[in-house]
Design goal:
With 138 residues, this protein is an alpha+beta fold. 25% of the residues lie in helices and 38% in strands. It has a six-stranded mixed β-sheet, covered by helices on one side. The chain is globular.
Length: 138
């Protein structure tokens, strides 16, 4: 439900970490994208992967594109968990409370846990509240 300015996507494309920002192509056109970032928590002693966005064009939904995009980020973590992701112990995201499809997607396909509700998280969409979804990583 969140729409981003074109600049957001240009910034994502220019990021150097290809393992955390992924695009799905069909016949040369982008049909889906996922982007995560590394965040410090608790004074930098621990880190988490934060999923900033996941989107698949409506005509391409139901074809496991979103699943493959998120799985590729998780695979990148697994391949690098002893190196650059050594301090990472969870992956998380915020989901609007009315977005049942997204909540079900993450909780059923990837075993995320629905955490606390955060009131007034979103500024330009209604309802403005969200849930924090998270998954502990090894």
């Amino acid at each position: 439900p969140v729409q981003y300015q074109e600049k957001y996507y240009k910034d994502v494309v220019e990021r150097r970490d290809e393992g955390l920002c992924k695009f799905a192509y069909w016949n040369g056109f982008v049909v889906g994208a996922a982007c995560a970032r590394l965040e410090n928590i608790e004074g930098g002693e621990r880190q988490r992967l934060y999923i900033m966005t996941l989107g698949v064009l409506a005509a391409y939904r139901g074809r496991n594109i979103g699943t493959q995009l998120i799985q590729s980020i998780l695979d990148h973590y697994e391949e690098n968990k002893d190196g650059e992701f050594a301090k990472v112990d969870e992956i998380s995201l915020h989901v609007q409370i009315s977005n049942d499809d997204a909540i079900n997607f993450y909780t059923t396909r990837f075993d995320f846990v629905k955490g606390d509700m955060v009131e007034n998280y979103y500024k330009r969409i209604d309802p403005p509240h969200c849930y924090l979804l998270y998954k502990k990583l090894s």
